[in-house]
Amino acid sequence: MTPEPFGARVRRLRMEARLTQAQVAKRAGASDERLVSNWERGFCHPRIDRLAPLAQALGVSCDVLLTGCEAV
After folding, report:
1. CATH number of the domain that 39 lies in?
2. Which of 6, 14, 39, 54 has the fewest beta carbons closer than 10 A?
3. Is 58 exposed, middle or buried (0-12, 13-18, 19+ CB in 10 A)?
């Protein structure tokens, strides 16, 4: 089984939370939705200081955001 790429995970979690890219950007403290789009398409990754706010915006832990599964 191939692991889910980070960008695909961000997009899936955003869609499951029924949020727009603009809403995620605002909640995660990103400059605008284009940055979220770039994360989702794998062009770049969020800065480390954006990971916790991004996870919170998506309603998951940082472990789920980064690995796709809960820490044991």
Report:
1. 1.10.260.40
2. 6
3. buried
pLDDT for 31 equals 86
Residue pointed to by tokens 């899936």: 12
Question: Is residue 1 in some structural domain?
Answer: no
User: Residue range 22-35: average pLDDT?
Assistant: 93
Provide the mean pLDDT of the chain.
93
Please choose, from the candidates 6, 18, 22, 3, the residue with its C-alpha nearest in 3D space to the C-alpha of residue 59: 18
CB 34 within 8 A of CB 28: no
Contact present, 62 and 55 (Cβ < 8 Å): yes
Number of domains within the chain: 1
**pLDDT of 72:** 55
pLDDT band at residue 2 under the 50/70/90 scheme? confident
DSSP reduced 3-state for 31: coil
